[in-house]
Design goal:
alpha+beta, 4-stranded antiparallel beta sheet, 5 helices, 37% helix
Length: 140
């Protein structure tokens, strides 16, 4: 990884669909050089993939909650993996700090979030505590 690779990553993180020709022009190099560098970073696992960033409210999900989960230590990984199975759970992280597991949950409204947390996720064996925090506004 050199400074040019870092700049390519910076550009792609802002716009993953930016054409290699435009990146090459911006970095004053050839399109083939950019293509080779990107392919190498993909092969090495530096670039894991490309995704569309969705505004949940535009597709009917008006409640997004960052939710902390505490578990029994022996069930920690099992609970994290089980959370990944729920369609409403968009991201799952294991963490240190206030909670062992953090998850991003999308729901249509508060009632649906309550149902997801208490009637679906809350029934996973080993969960000791669930702490949802509803996101009011994403600034960055």
């Amino acid at each position: 990884m050199d400074a040019k690779d870092m700049k390519i990553l910076e550009i792609l993180m802002k716009d993953g669909r930016k054409p290699f020709t435009e990146i090459a022009k911006e970095l004053n190099t050839s399109e083939s050089s950019i293509r080779k560098r990107v392919r190498k970073m993909e092969k090495e696992g530096i670039i894991k993939g490309y995704i569309a960033v969705i505004d949940p409210s535009k597709i009917g999900y008006n409640v997004v909650a960052l939710t902390g989960f505490d578990t029994d230590p022996q069930n920690f990984l099992m609970v994290a993996k089980k959370l990944c199975e729920f369609e409403e759970v968009k991201k799952v992280y294991t963490s240190t700090g206030d909670h062992m597991i953090m998850a991003e949950i999308w729901a249509k409204d508060g009632q649906e979030l309550t149902n997801i947390i208490f009637n679906k996720i809350g029934k996973i064996e080993g969960i000791k505590k669930v702490c949802p925090a509803i996101i009011l506004e994403q600034l960055k």
